[in-house]
Design goal:
The chain has about 180 residues and is α+β, with helices and mostly antiparallel strands. It has a single domain, classed as Alpha-Beta Complex (Peptide Deformylase), CATH 3.90.45.10. The protein is built from 4 helices and 7 strands, in the order αβββββββααα. The strands form 2 sheets. A 5-stranded antiparallel beta sheet has the order 1-2-3-6-7. A two-stranded antiparallel ribbon has the order 4-5. Bound molecules: zinc ion (ZN). The site of zinc ion (ZN) has 5 residues, from helix 2.
């Protein structure tokens, strides 16, 4: 990808309102958006995420970064703009985590295979077929753009057990935001 060098930015934590916002569809690619794309890629790679949604940088725009290498695939990390899941098959239970809830891992059922379509950083049509871990990451990131977190899919009983932990994230986020 050509463009500005990205910055490794702070990923907002559970409790930040940006994580609950519906991301706005992206129109024309502006210099500001190009910086956001670069920051998403840099931050995802530096912080060892398999994916990162713009909401997690506090900017609810419909784009996420994804790193297929995290799932062992020979495909470069990239940004997917205005993504939509156009196919979804099977179910797979596995452990899942999120940079906005660091250290928290829960078993979750997700589709086994998905197809995601959108456009790339240059505005060209983009499609990716994924399975397993990568499919999970893609669905997780699309959720973020809809203001949904992976813990929302847990049973109320399980979420109840996490309440204390979630309050800690909220306190950390408030301290970070001032
Ligand atoms: Zn996440």
């Amino acid at each position: 990808m050509t463009g500005p060098a990205g910055r490794n930015r702070r990923v907002v934590l559970y409790g930040n309102p940006a994580l609950r916002q519906q991301a706005a569809r992206i129109g024309e690619t502006t210099p500001r958006l190009r910086r956001l794309f670069a920051d998403l890629l840099r931050t995802m790679l530096e912080q060892d995420g398999m994916g990162l949604a713009a909401n997690q940088l506090g900017e609810p725009a419909a784009v996420f970064a994804i790193n297929p290498r995290g799932a062992g695939l020979e495909r470069n990390p990239c940004c997917v703009v205005n993504p939509r899941i156009t196919r979804s098959e099977g179910t797979l239970e596995a452990e899942e985590g999120c940079l906005s809830l660091p250290g928290l891992y829960e078993i979750l059922a997700r589709p086994e295979r998905v197809r995601v379509e959108g456009v790339d950083e240059e505005g060209k049509p983009f499609a990716l077929e994924a399975e397993g871990l990568l499919a999970r990451a893609i669905v997780h990131e699309v959720d973020h753009l809809n203001g949904v977190l992976f813990i929302d899919h847990l049973s109320p009983a399980r979420r109840g057990l996490l309440a204390g932990r979630l309050r800690e994230y909220e306190a950390q986020e408030q301290a970070a935001c001032g």
